[in-house]
Amino acid sequence: MDSIFSKLLENELFRDIDLNEKNIDISILNLYRFQVGEIVIEEGESSSELFLILDGMIEILQVTETGEEANLGIRKSGEFIGELGLIDASDRSCRVRSKSESTLLGIPGDKFFQLIQNFPKISLNLLRTLSQRQKNSDRLATKRYSELLEVNQNLEKLVEERTENLNLALKKIHKDLKFSEKLQSGILPPQKIIIESIHFFNLYQPLDEVGGDLFDIHQLEDKRIRVLLVDMTGHGIQAALLTMLIKSEYEGLKDLTIPPSEVFNLLNENIYTRYRSLNLIFPGFLVDIHMDKNEIIYSSAGHPEQFIIQNSSIGEMKKTGKIIGFLNDLNAEDRRIRFQKGDKILLFTDGLFEVFNRDKEEFGTDRIKSLIESSINLDIPELIDLIVTKMKEFTGGMDLDDDITCLGISYI
Q1: What's 300's domain CATH number?
Q2: Cβ distance 120 to 248 under 8 Å?
Q3: CATH number at residue 164
Q4: What pLDDT digit, counting tens, does each position of 91-103 carry?
């Protein structure tokens, strides 16, 4: 059992995760051994487990319409298979066969999702692996496309085979992206949340399947609700990977009963110390809602001004410090505001206002403020819908180039 546990720690899924025999029970996992040529997974069968490859080599195969097998890749010791069908709750899309004598460890679906909750870095490792697999698929697709260009027109059958393999590779890329989308959406809060008298509503529209905006709503034990909003530069799978990294670092800090500025100072120290080589810098907004004191305390690390609606007037919550990750000492500050029944808060990322029309005119925060003033009695969901609709009308149908996140808070 000790050797199985040591092999488990070597798997890419558990990279840099502090596991020990006290926080994971090996006995709930299933050990499998396969001979050369033995089927591990058959295409079309139901998905119930994710498999860690402890020893050996596994080949991923797609059965074509003619009954032939197209090789989609090889997985070796230290890698994993079966994650897509498990997350999608769909039937297996490929045949998996043992290429050598192999030993696999099966993680049942419910245990896998529990592991993700207990160890958020598993999600980051999943996204990293999928990103690398996507790059490999891109290279494979490009290589096969180049081969197609060189094939003589008279070799029609060979062209058809290469085209089919290319389509299969592109299909796998798309499936990996859809999986990444589901994985990221799983760590974000639901669209509507109610905690006592505080109502939350969010609108999240990533530019691609996955995005670089991150937000979190968390209730602490001392009658306060902590809300985080982060806007990572860029979009797509690279930005999504970085937000997973930030999420992992924030998880270890969000339960601390300290002011938002101190949370940001600690987060900045971790990001700057551990990931300086990545040039990981980003703005963030952190607000604590103290339900027992009818007040909020916020810290804005280089984030654009946000809005609070009180007594039919609009206040601005301005920056209180530098962006995170730029310097070792953030020296963030807090601001304190009364927050009572009927008050509303609107938080958003720059994808909502850094958009332009055909005349290169920016939508800007002033237009957002004017829309709030003219519709100040609207509930938060209707107000957010109005602002996003007007923003898209303003662009005149031009393509957007950033993720959009709006998070509204109402004291009912």
Answers
A1: 3.60.40.10
A2: yes
A3: 2.60.120.10
A4: 888 999 999 999 9
Domain boundary among 129, 156, 183: 183
| Residues 252 and 265 grouped into a single domain | yes
**Which residue bears the tokens 């808060």?**
345
**Two structure tokens written together for 207:** 């530019």
356 bridge partner residues? 362
Confidence of residue 230 (pLDDT cuts 50, 70, 90): very high
Residue that finishes a domain, picked among 150, 183, 216: 183
Distance CA 235, CA 142 (A): 23
Residue 26 CA, chain-centre distance (Å), reads 28
Please tell me whether residues 192 and 179 are part of one structural domain.
Answer: no
Phi, psi of 399 (to 5 degrees): -65, 140
Predicted confidence (pLDDT) per residue in 237-269, tens digit: 778 888 889 999 999 999 999 999 999 999 999
- Residues 402, 235: contact at Cβ < 8 Å? yes
Contact 109, 51 (CB under 8 A): no
DSSP helix/strand/coil, 253: coil
Structure tokens at 195: 């905690």
Same domain (yes/no): 206, 152: no
pLDDT reading at 358 higher than 80: yes
Q: Are 195 and 159 in contact (CB under 8 A)?
A: no
Name the H helices within 252-317: 260-275
The full length of the chain comes to 412
Element (H, E) at 123: helix 121-150
Q: Is 23 helix (H, G, I), strand (E, B) or coil?
A: coil
| pLDDT of res. 180 | 53
Residues 343, 207: one domain? Answer: yes
122 and 86 Cβ atoms separated by less than 8 Å: no
Residues 103 and 222 occupy one common structural domain: no
* Same domain (yes/no): 337, 242: yes
**Domain of 115?**
2-183
pTM of model > 0.85: no
Look at the chain and report how many structural domains it folds into: 2
Q: Do residue 299 and residue 382 come from a single domain?
A: yes
Q: Tell me the CB-side half-sphere exposure of residue 360, using CA atoms within 13 A.
A: 0
